[in-house]
Amino acid sequence: VKENGKAGVRVYSAALDAARHRQQELEGEIRQGLNDGQFEVFYQPIVDAEGKDIVSVEALLRWPRRPAGAIGPDQFICVAEASGLINPLGLFVLRRACQDILEAKGLNLSVNVSPAQFRDPDFEAKIAAVLAETGFPAQRLEFELTEGYLIDHPERAMAVIASLKGMGVSIALDDFGVGYTSIAYLQRYGFDRIKIDKSLAGRIATDKKAGVLVAGAIYIANGLDMAVTAEGVETEEQADLLRLAGCQCLQGFRYSEPKPIDEIRDWLTERRG
Ligand code: C2E
Ligand code: CA
Ligand code: CA
Ligand code: CA
Known about the structure:
8-stranded mixed beta barrel; binds ligand C2E; single chain; alpha/beta; EAL domain-containing protein; 11 helices
């Protein structure tokens, strides 16, 4: 180790430079993509516990017209967050989704909000402006938040959540089961809903401990007046277990993959007549 020390550091810093370079490149691509209209919003249906009626859709960002080839949000959201581009990108998703879903009467809309967007002091005002501009009723809108920022900046997070709820928007805790915090603790943020992550929900039929965790989380959430959506439902067996445990809403490939708005409209007509 000692002999290779200097060379090791050089290799390490060369790798860091390369990673930083790739990140900067991607940052430029995202900025260009926003200007050129390369991004799209897809929608994944969320159904009731019986799997019968569609109650809402989750807006999910797609980049189909990226010149260097489409990549998923897991590959570029983090770069957008680090560079601040998540602010215009997040507003693009919200505006487009409000426009697309407005006419789908009775359908609620869930939009992912990156905690990094909370760093913008005008965040709440920008949300209010999009709602006013699109005419989308705040009561039909829910924001999905991950817990990271809440833990790091509890005061700011609580203030933003309170003012969003003041507008009539609901707040869901996203990716439950991935982080470390208990829902009992997170309840003080005033969540209306928790979303059980697919990494946990996907194992309930095969892993006894995952099943106990999920059933317990649903029990606690419901007892604290929070609704529960399970993500990543792929089989009827998982759906049965979740329904029996008291889960209100189901989302996953069992029902539908995320789809473009036209296909969602067809799907609605088919299922609702
Ligand atoms: P997420 O918020 O947890 O979204 C759910 C992810 O699970 C989506 O991946 C969805 O396609 C996938 N999924 C849904 N049902 C199933 C299933 O039954 N099986 C499997 N294997 N997967 C399923 P996607 O669209 O690739 O998004 C990944 C993540 O990127 C999202 O995770 C979210 O954290 C982030 N993301 C996507 N769109 C946005 C956005 O507009 N803004 C922000 N801030 N983040 C976004
Ligand atoms: Ca989500
Ligand atoms: Ca998730
Ligand atoms: Ca997530």
